[in-house]
Q: What sequence folds into this?
Protein backbone atom coordinates (compact mmCIF):
# COMPACT_ATOMS: atom_id res chain seq x y z
CA UNK A 1 0.00 0.00 0.00
CA UNK A 2 1.44 3.38 -0.98
CA UNK A 3 1.86 5.92 1.80
CA UNK A 4 1.00 9.58 1.98
CA UNK A 5 2.78 11.53 -0.75
CA UNK A 6 3.86 15.16 -0.50
CA UNK A 7 5.63 17.60 -2.78
CA UNK A 8 7.84 19.47 -2.97
CA UNK A 9 10.16 18.04 -0.30
CA UNK A 10 12.03 21.31 0.15
CA UNK A 11 11.21 24.93 -0.61
CA UNK A 12 13.12 28.14 0.01
CA UNK A 13 11.34 31.47 -0.49
CA UNK A 14 11.74 35.07 0.58
CA UNK A 15 9.35 36.67 3.04
CA UNK A 16 6.20 38.09 1.50
CA UNK A 17 6.32 35.53 -1.34
CA UNK A 18 3.69 32.85 -1.76
CA UNK A 19 4.10 29.07 -1.69
CA UNK A 20 1.92 26.00 -2.15
CA UNK A 21 2.27 22.44 -0.93
CA UNK A 22 0.58 19.35 -2.31
CA UNK A 23 -0.57 16.16 -0.57
CA UNK A 24 -1.97 12.87 -1.85
CA UNK A 25 -3.35 10.72 1.00
CA UNK A 26 -3.41 6.95 1.29
CA UNK A 27 -5.96 5.55 -1.15
CA UNK A 28 -9.39 5.28 0.42
CA UNK A 29 -8.62 7.53 3.39
CA UNK A 30 -11.49 9.95 3.88
CA UNK A 31 -9.78 12.24 6.37
CA UNK A 32 -6.79 14.45 5.65
CA UNK A 33 -4.85 16.67 8.06
CA UNK A 34 -2.22 19.35 7.65
CA UNK A 35 0.20 19.87 10.53
CA UNK A 36 2.99 22.41 11.03
CA UNK A 37 6.14 21.20 12.81
CA UNK A 38 8.55 23.87 13.91
CA UNK A 39 12.09 22.66 14.65
CA UNK A 40 12.31 21.06 18.09
CA UNK A 41 8.54 20.91 18.63
CA UNK A 42 5.72 18.48 18.11
CA UNK A 43 3.41 18.80 15.10
CA UNK A 44 0.59 21.33 15.44
CA UNK A 45 -2.73 20.80 13.66
CA UNK A 46 -3.60 23.44 11.06
CA UNK A 47 -6.66 21.99 9.34
CA UNK A 48 -8.66 18.77 9.06
CA UNK A 49 -10.76 17.70 6.05
CA UNK A 50 -13.26 14.89 5.84
CA UNK A 51 -13.78 14.12 2.17
CA UNK A 52 -13.95 17.63 0.65
CA UNK A 53 -15.35 19.41 3.72
CA UNK A 54 -13.47 21.27 6.45
CA UNK A 55 -13.98 19.71 9.90
CA UNK A 56 -11.61 21.87 11.93
CA UNK A 57 -9.61 24.94 10.90
CA UNK A 58 -9.57 26.68 14.27
CA UNK A 59 -5.74 26.85 14.37
CA UNK A 60 -5.23 27.91 10.75
CA UNK A 61 -3.95 31.52 10.43
CA UNK A 62 -6.60 32.41 7.89
CA UNK A 63 -5.17 35.81 7.06
CA UNK A 64 -2.29 34.11 5.23
CA UNK A 65 -2.95 30.36 5.09
CA UNK A 66 -5.54 28.61 2.94
CA UNK A 67 -6.20 24.98 2.08
CA UNK A 68 -8.51 23.06 -0.16
CA UNK A 69 -9.45 19.50 -1.02
CA UNK A 70 -11.80 20.05 -3.90
CA UNK A 71 -12.43 16.47 -5.06
CA UNK A 72 -12.00 14.81 -1.69
CA UNK A 73 -8.63 13.27 -2.52
CA UNK A 74 -5.57 15.52 -3.08
CA UNK A 75 -5.12 18.67 -1.04
CA UNK A 76 -3.10 21.86 -1.35
CA UNK A 77 -1.97 24.19 1.41
CA UNK A 78 -1.02 27.74 0.47
CA UNK A 79 0.75 30.51 2.34
CA UNK A 80 0.45 34.08 1.05
CA UNK A 81 2.36 36.15 2.04
CA UNK A 82 4.96 34.11 3.93
CA UNK A 83 6.60 35.34 7.12
CA UNK A 84 9.92 34.30 8.66
CA UNK A 85 8.06 32.43 11.43
CA UNK A 86 6.43 30.17 8.83
CA UNK A 87 9.74 28.32 8.45
CA UNK A 88 8.82 24.76 9.44
CA UNK A 89 8.07 21.31 8.12
CA UNK A 90 4.52 20.98 6.80
CA UNK A 91 3.22 17.48 7.33
CA UNK A 92 0.20 15.93 5.73
CA UNK A 93 -1.51 12.96 7.39
CA UNK A 94 -4.50 10.81 6.55
CA UNK A 95 -6.80 8.37 8.30
CA UNK A 96 -9.57 6.06 7.20
CA UNK A 97 -12.34 7.82 9.09
CA UNK A 98 -12.71 10.56 11.67
CA UNK A 99 -14.22 10.96 15.10
CA UNK A 100 -13.44 7.54 16.46
CA UNK A 101 -9.75 7.67 17.16
CA UNK A 102 -8.42 6.25 13.92
CA UNK A 103 -4.70 5.97 13.29
CA UNK A 104 -3.16 8.87 11.40
CA UNK A 105 -0.32 8.20 8.95
CA UNK A 106 2.09 10.96 8.00
CA UNK A 107 3.74 11.89 4.75
CA UNK A 108 7.45 12.84 4.50
CA UNK A 109 6.69 16.54 4.83
CA UNK A 110 7.73 19.69 3.00
CA UNK A 111 10.54 21.65 4.65
CA UNK A 112 9.91 25.37 4.13
CA UNK A 113 12.61 27.96 4.72
CA UNK A 114 11.56 31.62 4.60
CA UNK A 115 14.47 34.08 4.29
CA UNK B 1 -8.63 22.82 23.92
CA UNK B 2 -6.42 19.87 24.74
CA UNK B 3 -2.98 20.36 26.31
CA UNK B 4 -0.43 17.53 26.38
CA UNK B 5 2.66 17.69 28.59
CA UNK B 6 5.55 15.26 27.99
CA UNK B 7 8.52 14.36 30.19
CA UNK B 8 11.45 14.10 30.11
CA UNK B 9 12.66 16.17 27.17
CA UNK B 10 15.83 14.06 26.94
CA UNK B 11 16.37 10.51 28.17
CA UNK B 12 19.65 8.63 28.00
CA UNK B 13 19.71 4.91 28.84
CA UNK B 14 22.20 2.10 28.47
CA UNK B 15 21.55 -0.40 25.70
CA UNK B 16 19.48 -3.25 27.08
CA UNK B 17 17.88 -1.16 29.83
CA UNK B 18 14.27 0.06 29.85
CA UNK B 19 13.04 3.53 28.96
CA UNK B 20 9.86 5.21 30.20
CA UNK B 21 8.33 8.39 28.80
CA UNK B 22 5.36 10.02 30.51
CA UNK B 23 2.58 12.29 29.27
CA UNK B 24 -0.36 14.05 30.87
CA UNK B 25 -3.40 15.50 29.16
CA UNK B 26 -5.97 18.06 30.18
CA UNK B 27 -9.20 17.21 28.34
CA UNK B 28 -11.08 14.32 29.94
CA UNK B 29 -13.04 13.90 26.69
CA UNK B 30 -9.90 12.75 24.83
CA UNK B 31 -10.13 9.06 24.06
CA UNK B 32 -7.27 8.23 21.71
CA UNK B 33 -3.56 8.37 22.58
CA UNK B 34 -0.97 7.44 19.95
CA UNK B 35 2.81 7.45 20.20
CA UNK B 36 5.02 8.42 17.29
CA UNK B 37 8.73 7.86 16.67
CA UNK B 38 10.54 10.43 14.55
CA UNK B 39 14.08 9.96 13.33
CA UNK B 40 16.06 12.98 12.18
CA UNK B 41 14.67 14.33 8.92
CA UNK B 42 12.01 11.62 8.68
CA UNK B 43 8.25 11.50 9.04
CA UNK B 44 6.60 10.68 12.40
CA UNK B 45 5.87 6.94 12.48
CA UNK B 46 3.05 5.49 14.55
CA UNK B 47 4.50 2.86 16.89
CA UNK B 48 1.60 2.13 19.24
CA UNK B 49 -1.72 3.62 20.27
CA UNK B 50 -4.28 3.15 23.01
CA UNK B 51 -7.93 4.03 23.40
CA UNK B 52 -9.58 5.10 26.63
CA UNK B 53 -11.49 1.84 27.08
CA UNK B 54 -8.18 0.00 27.49
CA UNK B 55 -5.69 0.35 30.36
CA UNK B 56 -2.64 -1.24 28.77
CA UNK B 57 -1.45 -2.40 25.37
CA UNK B 58 1.72 -4.23 24.43
CA UNK B 59 3.52 -4.90 21.16
CA UNK B 60 6.76 -6.86 21.53
CA UNK B 61 9.21 -4.56 23.38
CA UNK B 62 6.84 -1.59 23.46
CA UNK B 63 3.95 -1.06 25.86
CA UNK B 64 1.66 1.83 26.68
CA UNK B 65 -0.36 2.33 29.87
CA UNK B 66 -3.25 4.72 30.40
CA UNK B 67 -4.67 6.06 33.67
CA UNK B 68 -7.89 7.90 32.80
CA UNK B 69 -8.54 9.06 36.34
CA UNK B 70 -5.16 10.74 36.61
CA UNK B 71 -5.17 11.70 32.91
CA UNK B 72 -1.75 10.36 32.17
CA UNK B 73 -0.27 7.74 29.89
CA UNK B 74 3.21 6.30 29.49
CA UNK B 75 5.38 4.58 26.89
CA UNK B 76 7.60 1.74 28.05
CA UNK B 77 10.40 0.35 25.90
CA UNK B 78 12.20 -2.72 27.20
CA UNK B 79 15.55 -4.19 26.14
CA UNK B 80 16.46 -0.97 24.32
CA UNK B 81 18.54 -1.19 21.16
CA UNK B 82 20.59 1.44 19.27
CA UNK B 83 17.86 1.71 16.62
CA UNK B 84 15.45 2.91 19.32
CA UNK B 85 17.35 6.22 19.39
CA UNK B 86 14.95 8.90 18.07
CA UNK B 87 12.50 11.57 19.21
CA UNK B 88 9.26 10.16 20.60
CA UNK B 89 6.02 12.14 20.65
CA UNK B 90 2.87 11.40 22.59
CA UNK B 91 -0.43 12.83 21.43
CA UNK B 92 -4.06 13.09 22.48
CA UNK B 93 -7.13 13.03 20.27
CA UNK B 94 -10.15 15.15 21.19
CA UNK B 95 -13.25 13.89 19.42
CA UNK B 96 -16.24 16.06 18.80
CA UNK B 97 -18.26 16.33 15.63
CA UNK B 98 -15.64 14.33 13.80
CA UNK B 99 -12.81 16.70 14.73
CA UNK B 100 -10.01 14.47 15.95
CA UNK B 101 -6.84 16.28 15.05
CA UNK B 102 -4.05 15.33 17.45
CA UNK B 103 -2.46 17.54 20.09
CA UNK B 104 1.19 16.56 20.46
CA UNK B 105 3.60 16.79 23.35
CA UNK B 106 6.93 18.51 22.84
CA UNK B 107 8.82 15.28 22.34
CA UNK B 108 11.44 13.20 24.17
CA UNK B 109 14.86 12.70 22.65
CA UNK B 110 15.77 9.11 23.54
CA UNK B 111 19.47 8.31 23.40
CA UNK B 112 20.61 4.69 23.67
CA UNK B 113 24.16 4.48 24.94
CA UNK B 114 26.13 1.47 23.63
A:
Amino acid sequence: EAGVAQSPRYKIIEKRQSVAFWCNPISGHATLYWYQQILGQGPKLLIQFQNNGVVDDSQLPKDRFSAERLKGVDSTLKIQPAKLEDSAVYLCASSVLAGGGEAQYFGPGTRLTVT
Amino acid sequence: GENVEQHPSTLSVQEGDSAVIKCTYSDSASNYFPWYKQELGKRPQLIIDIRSNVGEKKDQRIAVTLNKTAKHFSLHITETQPEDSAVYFCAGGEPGGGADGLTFGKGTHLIIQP
About this structure: Chain B touches chain A at residues 1, 6, 31-32, 34, 36, 42-46, 49, 51, 89, 91, 93, 95-107 (CB under 8 Å).
